[in-house]
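Prompt: I keep going back and forth on a fold encoding question. Comparing notes only helps if you start from a blank page. Show me how you would write down a chain together with its backbone fold. Please set it down just below, with no commentary around it:
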Amino acid sequence: MSTSHARPPAWAGSLSERGAAVLQHTYARYPIEFLNGRGCQLTDSSGREYLDFTAGIAVNVLGHGHPAIVSALQEAADALLHVSNLYWTEPMVRLAERLAEAGEMDKVFFCNSGAEAIEAGLKLARRAQPGRTRTVCFEGSFHGRTLGALSMTAQTHYQDPFRPLLPDVHVLPFGDFDALGEALGNAVAAVIVEPIQGEGGIRPAPPGWLARVRELCNQSGAALIFDEVQSGIGRTGSFFAFQEEGVLPDAVATAKALAGGLPMGALLARGDLAETFQPGDHGSTFGGGPLVSTVANAVLDVVMEEGFLEDVSVRGQVLRSGLERVAAGHTITHSVRGRGLMQGLVLTSPVAADIVTAAQDNGLLLCPAGSNVVRFVPPLIVTDQEISQALEILEQVLNDLGEEPSP
């Protein structure tokens, strides 16, 4: 990517050392200092530009500096930033109305992140059926790092340092049609599942499996909770990925894209489950605040415009076709899986981190989804030209890594 000749800021080149001295070591950050961005482009402190196909890990659905978000921030700054949930604010109520309608749900609880939305769902299921203590989740899942969400994240490298976790969690194979029927019974409060596993490797549920999960939850009385923290708010070409399956959960957790870059999460619920929480059962000081709600409404204004989600589907197919072409041309690339603008390039060996680093050196921002999957989650406003540019860089990266093209 190109490099600007603007003078670097005074702090350029210092953040890694300064940050290491004062920030707890919870992230393995790349040595890049970002300064600003527009659309699908980011610029670092040296003036170098990058094509962003990470989007804040599926957060910046409208890219960087989108005029709708800038305008909403200005509107909110001139009105209210925070008043707490002791009172009503119009942006919060309007957003809840729109989410409930778009998600085919009845009521909404607002919070600040995906993990918080999952925690709310776990508590809601317990509150709805006292005495039911078991929760079912699936191998390869990722639901967050707070204690309850972590207990449902069936990946040992995340869980092992923090055991013992919540008891009575039953882990089943993802996509297995037989195992679930044997596990469900009248002790299960909730089944929690990602329609498309994100951190678990961009793995869509097999066709028909979510419908089977729904059927078994109906029989057992367990609440079915979908985790659409990463796949929701238009990323797959529909508002929620579950809507493409024709399966309706009892609750759905979402976050990431909801406020286009600001911290916001939500748990949507329907039917009796939506009426379960009573005052004092759960809460969030900042949840649904006027600032983030105003921005989230602006995001929905764009995402729900006529034709926008159809365009996401089209761009997603362009990206997938291009990735499949690349995968067919190299022995290290095995296959492509995903939906819409949530795609994973599956590798034949655990070198995803190497490819991500090399792409970054060539001006393309990607992130892994496990050791053998490279994740592609660009802003939903990405263009065909930008997709083509990303694929050219990927091809060059594979060639530069010494990967011999397949015959």
